[in-house]
Amino acid sequence: xxxxxxxxxxxxxxxxxxxxxxxxxxxxxxxxxxxxxxxxxxxxxxxxxxxxxxxxxxxxxxxxxxxxxxxxxxxxxxxxxxxxxxxxxxxxxxxxxxxxxxxxxxxxxxxxxxxxxxxxxxxxxxxxxxxxxxxxxxxxxxxxxxxxxxxxxxxxxxxxx
Length: 161
Fold this sequence. Notes:
Mean pLDDT: 89
Shape: elongated
CATH topology: Receptor-associated Protein
Number of helices: 7
Structural class: mainly alpha
Order of helices and strands: HHHHHHH
């Protein structure tokens, strides 16, 4: 069951529109949660450990696990995100700025708001594309059905002679 789930996740990250939507939703939730925990005085390492459990994606959980290890070895959080797959460049840059200015919790909240708005925009785009695609698919289905019927009718005429 886990291998099937991992396969679906890899497939979701392979499709561009779904990949960015999934990334925006995951990182937005992660950013809000991490910002809230950090604002309440928890260390970055402990906050990442706690927030890692809220992630649905095993790819992101693994990335955060690597980030925790790197932070224990003295690296900055922004440096560990630089190598993380599927993390939007905007989030990487804003985390770096937040660390440099000492406003990481506020910056994480801001990242979450931006990515939520982007995800909302992407969902609206998907729902705007669905009706024309369905209309086209139904038209192709009806057209092919008519062609099959016409072919059968015309072939009966050929048999009569």
